[in-house]
């Protein structure tokens, strides 16, 4: 009789809506266990008790809080007994405006969420991955870290730092059997991107619909991306087929940046 391997387990941050929700749902549909966490209490409603054969747990948590990372790792271990992957998706858009126009407190908060939240979760999960000799970290970056725009310096610097962090961790953790990669989404019709569209539209003196059309026209494949597009890249990076892939930035952007 063949033993059935237990399901793999992942922590997904920012899982209540948008890209994180798409990633969590895809993992669950593929048979993973997931600790779905978000600052938004809607995460509890989206992954209610008894759904997905009990393979999902939720946590309302703020990744910028220094206590959160260790608490989430403890929760995942208590719920599932193992952690195989960490998907750092939680993030905020930060203040809009040129650097000399925005408050340093807003810059600090953006870095606390988008960068230090990622750093702390990586620090918390690495000992578990090291002990088992395997693990996957996927950090969600942004096309704007590769293709900056005016008025988004706080967000862009935070995501550029996440890209660099993935590179550094890949070199540090490769000998331990741990891979670390970044997925850099392009124009995704999330709440955050709609806010960016509104900001760019105001700067250009046009309405939001016209700006959305302009942005879509920049994309060679002719459309905005979806959570499913990003989730597909994430699950590939978690699969055995990607075991030799680390330190990479995978653009899911419809071709607006090519490399």
TrEMBL record:
The keyword Oxidoreductase applies. InterPro entries: NAD(P)-bd_dom_sf, SDR_fam. Belongs to the short-chain dehydrogenases/reductases (SDR) family. GO terms for biological process: fatty acid elongation. Keywords: Oxidoreductase. One of its GO terms (molecular function) is oxidoreductase activity, acting on the CH-OH group of donors, NAD or NADP as acceptor. This is 3-oxoacyl-ACP reductase. It holds the Pfam family adh_short_C2.
């Amino acid at each position: 009789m063949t033993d059935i391997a237990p399901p793999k387990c992942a922590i997904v941050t920012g899982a209540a809506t948008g890209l994180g929700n798409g990633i969590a749902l895809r993992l669950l549909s593929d048979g993973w266990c997931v600790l779905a966490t978000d600052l938004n209490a809607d995460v509890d409603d989206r992954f209610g008790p008894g759904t997905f054969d009990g393979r999902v747990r939720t946590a309302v948590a703020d990744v910028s809080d220094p206590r959160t990372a260790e608490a989430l790792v403890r929760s995942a271990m208590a719920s599932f007994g193992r952690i195989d992957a960490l998907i750092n998706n939680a993030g905020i858009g930060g203040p809009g405006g040129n650097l000399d126009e925005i408050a340093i407190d807003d810059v600090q908060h953006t870095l606390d969420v988008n960068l230090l939240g990622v750093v702390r979760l990586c620090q918390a999960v690495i000992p578990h991955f090291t002990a088992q000799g395997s693990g996957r970290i996927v950090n969600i970056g942004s096309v704007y870290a590769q293709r900056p725009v005016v008025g988004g310096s706080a967000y862009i610097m935070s995501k550029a730092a996440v890209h660099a962090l993935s590179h550094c961790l890949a070199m540090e953790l490769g000998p331990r059997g741990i891979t670390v990669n970044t997925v850099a989404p392009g124009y995704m019709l999330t709440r955050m991107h709609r806010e960016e569209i509104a900001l760019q539209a105001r700067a250009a003196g046009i309405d939001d619909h016209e700006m959305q059309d302009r942005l879509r026209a920049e994309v060679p494949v002719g459309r905005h991306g979806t959570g499913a597009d990003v989730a597909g890249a994430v699950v590939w990076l978690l699969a055995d087929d990607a075991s030799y892939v680390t330190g990479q930035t995978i653009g899911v952007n419809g071709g607006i940046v090519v490399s």
